Amino acid sequence: MKKVTVYALVLGFCLGYLVFITLDEISNNKKIVESEIIHGEHMEMNHQHERINVGDVIPELDVEVYKDTTSGYNVHIITKNFEWKPEAVNTDPVDNQGHAHIYINNEKIARVYGDWFHIDDHHILDTSNTLRVTLNANNHAEWSINDNSIEFITPLF
Questions:
Q1: Could you identify which of 25, 63, 89, 141 might form a hypothetical disulfide with 52, taking C-beta atoms 3.0 to 4.6 angstroms apart as the criterion?
Q2: How far is 58 from 55, CA to CA, in rounded Å?
Q3: What b/e sequence results for 112-132 when a residue is b if at least 16 CB atoms lie within 10 Å of its CB, and e otherwise?
Q4: Which pairs with CB-CB distance under 8 Å and at least 24 residues apart come from 64-69?
């Protein structure tokens, strides 16, 4: 009987330790995500990305938006003279390469590294909504022409 009790205690201790470690990891990840969200909102409210005028070859931007049959919207970002370069993020700008930023109602919701993106319903208000997509350099500055951002703005219905 004592042998069973010892095994049960050891097993209970191990399971408790695993649960504690798992919950601690979840808690730490949640804090990191919350910190990034708060930091991101802070940055958007108090900081507008700088602009960099493009060189001789001008990137082109067009956007197609499709209502998803399940939820939200699917966004197709169509570019010409622009190279998606996720591996170069946070480095010095190189003409006509980088990523995109997506905004809903002037709130940045995502950094995008390719030509398709899904917008979840939780970003959408019951009232009117506006989608804004910008082309951004590796350092997050908005590509621009004569200090006007290369962007696409459309209402969402």
A1: 141
A2: 7
A3: beeeebebeeebbeeeebebb
A4: 65/131, 65/154, 65/156, 67/157, 68/118
Burial of 105 (0-12, 13-18, 19+ CB in 10 A): middle
Using DSSP's 3-state secondary structure scheme, residue 101 falls into strand
Give the pLDDT of the chain (157 residues) as one tens digit per residue.
Answer: 566 555 555 555 555 554 445 445 544 443 333 333 333 333 333 346 799 999 999 999 999 999 999 999 999 999 999 999 999 999 999 999 999 999 999 999 999 999 999 999 999 998 899 999 999 999 999 999 999 999 999 999 8
Q: How many CB atoms lie within 10 A of CB 10?
A: 10
Is 86 within 8 Å of 136 (Cβ atoms)? Answer: no
What distances in angstroms separate CA 85 from CA 42, 64, 81, 96, one per listed residue? 26, 21, 13, 10
Find out whether 34 and 117 touch, Cβ atoms under 8 Å: no
Locate 134 and state its tokens.
Answer: 């910008």
